[in-house]
């Protein structure tokens, strides 16, 4: 029998495009960490020369922007909001962001270093802002509520002195003198109580702390909305911004 012609598609290399580059970059960072990601290492994973990547991403920063967009794409999709359920909808959206960052621990560092608001970034912010406005909150209160929520809308809390996940804390010589624990009785009291509540653990329950802060903020925003709060006009540095005006 004559030899059958080979299927022309069997040995064809998968076409390189932006979506494939970004997926490979996310997978690489998930497995090896963000510090190991470079245009050279990514090109090796994809089996192409480094210059081939530049047809699809402008540079390393554009690559990271696209990777962040890929993670945002895993957030729960926006849907028509129920104004009466605005707190639970925002909570659900924020927690979906947190779950996505749990799957991609490198993403926090990438988000914190972004300087360009891509359409995906703006779409997430738009969804939360629209939920608040449709619930009847004033643009004034929404503005300050978004500031208060801050990085929590991306699924992580701003923690004092803690390095982001995946980052190594730099070791530097101490020149300020060694602290004496007895000089900080309030900190010791709180630390001792926390240790007693979580025996065997040497760190805080980050998931609980995130939920505690998120729910506290949403409850406070709701109370301010119910009290008809508005921010003071002009220069407000020395005014009390959280005093609801009487009904």
Describe this structure in words.
There is one protein chain. The chain has 247 residues and is an all-alpha fold. Helix content is 51%, strand content 0%. It is built from 10 helices and no strands. The chain has helices spanning 18-32, 39-46, 50-53, 60-72, 86-103, 107-112, 119-134, 139-149, 185-197, 206-226. Helix 1 packs across helix 4 (60-72) and helix 8 (139-149) packs antiparallel against helix 10 (206-226). The chain is globular. The termini are far apart. Mean pLDDT is 86; it is low at 8-12.
User: How much beta, percentage-wise?
Assistant: under 5%
Tell me, rounded to a whole number, the average pLDDT. Answer: 86
What proportion of the residues is helical, as a percent range? 40-55%
Shape: globular
Strand tally is: 0
Structural class: mainly alpha
Low-confidence stretches: 8-12
Number of helices: 10
Question: First CA to last CA: what distance?
Answer: 93 Å
Q: What is the ordering of alpha helices and beta strands?
A: HHHHHHHHHH
- Using only CA atoms, what is the Rg? 24 Å
**Sheet with the most strands?**
none
Write a short abstract of this structure.
This protein has 247 residues and is mainly alpha-helical. It has helices at 18-32, 39-46, 50-53, 60-72, 86-103, 107-112, 119-134, 139-149, 185-197, 206-226.
SSE arrangement:
Elements: H1 18-32, H2 39-46, H3 50-53, H4 60-72, H5 86-103, H6 107-112, H7 119-134, H8 139-149, H9 185-197, H10 206-226
Supply the key terms:
247 residues; mainly alpha; 10 helices
